[in-house]
Amino acid sequence: MKRIALLLSLLVPITLLADETCMSPYMAKIVGQEDFVYVWTLGVVGIGDEQDKLVTVSVNPNTDSYGKVIHSLSVGGRNEAHHSGFTDDRRYLWASGLDTSKIFIFDVHTDPAKPRLHKVIENFVSMSGGVVGPHTSYALPGRMMITGLSNNKDHGGQTGMVEYTNAGDYVATYWMPRDGALNGAEKSGKFAGGYGYDLRAFPRRNVMVTSSFTGWNNYMMNIGAMMASPEAMAQFGNTVVIWDLHARTPKKILDVPGAPLEIRCAWGVKNNYCFTTTALTSEIWLIYEDENLEWQSKKVADIGDASKIPLPVDISITADDKLLWVNTWNDGLTHLYDISDPHHPVQLFEDKIGEQVNMVSQSWDGQRVYFTSSLLTNWDKTESTGADLQYFKIYDFDGKKLEHKLTIDFLAEKLGYPHQMRFGAYSLYGMKAPQEVSLSSAS
Known about the structure:
Helix content: under 10%
Number of helices: 5
């Protein structure tokens, strides 16, 4: 009976709202007003304590602390803080460093306003058999699947995925299929480089989808030096891989040239498709199941002027699968596309958010949109032409336009470079919010 229950949990996704479409379908449905945004923030030399930190921002308009930093927890040193993800029960937030390959596990349920550092995984590379640069932390039932970006042999882009229990115990490593080691996968096009980046699960189709970026040698290099090097620019991924979710085995390698980054999947019961965008060629690609139940990839739209290298980064699908947010880091723009016909996206508008923009997160009710600015320490801009440089921003969204509500300048606050955002709330853990959340500088 336990095995049957587990199988059902793997096959039946939970309906999600707003930014929850960017996360795992194995998490419980969330409604209402988020109380907090947890911002995984890069420590920078000469700014504050120079350490990576988890910054908690109060975002409930009904509190006196709305729009304020109420907690900041430094983790010691600089690790190239990048992405984070909740366990399936949302009690813990896993956040990783692309440089040191450390994984920091935060307790966000004991006191949601003041996360605690619960555990640090420091042997990720040795336990995984050589995977470097933990990126996406993705919840599966009782498990966390971590995508890597690199390896410890040549620090290039060949890499794998690493599975852990929710308690932080190593389970297995799954290497990305590549020429000479396809591991049973069908190579459907020209590329099979073994690169990795993002991960999303499609439970009702028994599918995992992974994308591909670049290795440690590139993402830790100064962006100007990298772009001036033909050798470095040749070391980017060009594939999306379709996996058997339950068996954890690769099934098909799809060509998506130009470094496909974030993957976002539609959750409508008849919508068997995902989107990704290519960093180097500035395109939207559709990853879809055709009428023969075969997974395919195709370019469906351009994003801005590719010759100006806008560099698409984070994307987010609205809860009804009708709109797609696409951020372009280099020009600081967010773009909104109508994807009601996923094969023919149409841009509705674009809006300048700052000097640069990276992450975008929609509120649980879809009425607010949050933005942060940082991409990578050695890629981020250091001088502004007048727009905000390193920030956390809140906008109201009425379905047609953005209205700016507030900005926290992370440089002025001496916090560092803000990267990925995750939401928290007292109600997630059966708690009642206090009358007022007091400000705290505890670290």
